[in-house]
Amino acid sequence: MTDAERKLWSALRLKQLNGFQFYRQLIIGNYIVDFCSPALKLVIEVDGSQHYTEEGLAADKTRDRFLNEQGLKVLRYNDRDVLTNLAGMVENILENIK
């Protein structure tokens, strides 16, 4: 895990987020997602700079489309935002699960 993933995991693990179970590095189809809560049908991705290249954006679009087709909502966060504003990221996740 990257530093940003470790930091977000510290807020998601052990059912800390409103009692919902999250798993890390879960395989869904041909993809490995950073974090997933099956009960919420929610995937959370923490993206580093490689995701903001033309190729990275195209790959993420394909990946998100597949995950959406499986009935999953995908939230993406920049690793820098997670490292500098974890509370804001957690608040945003909570807003998206209401």
What is the strand tally? 4
CATH class: Alpha Beta
- Estimate percent helicity: 40-55%
- Radius of gyration, in angstroms, nearest whole number: 13 Å
Structural class: alpha+beta
Strand order of the largest sheet: 1-2-3-4
Strand content: 25-35%
- For the record, give the distance between the C-alpha atoms at the N and C termini, rounded to a whole number: 28 Å
Oligomer: single chain
Number of domains: 1
Structure description:
- 44% of the residues lie in helices and 26% in strands.
- The chain contains 4 helices and 4 strands; from the N terminus they run αβββαβαα.
- The radius of gyration is 13 Å and the shape is globular.
- The chain has a 4-stranded mixed sheet with strand order 1-2-3-4, with helices on both faces.
- It starts with a helix and ends with a helix.
- With 98 residues, it is α+β, with helices and mostly antiparallel strands.
- α2 links the parallel β3 and β4 (73-78).
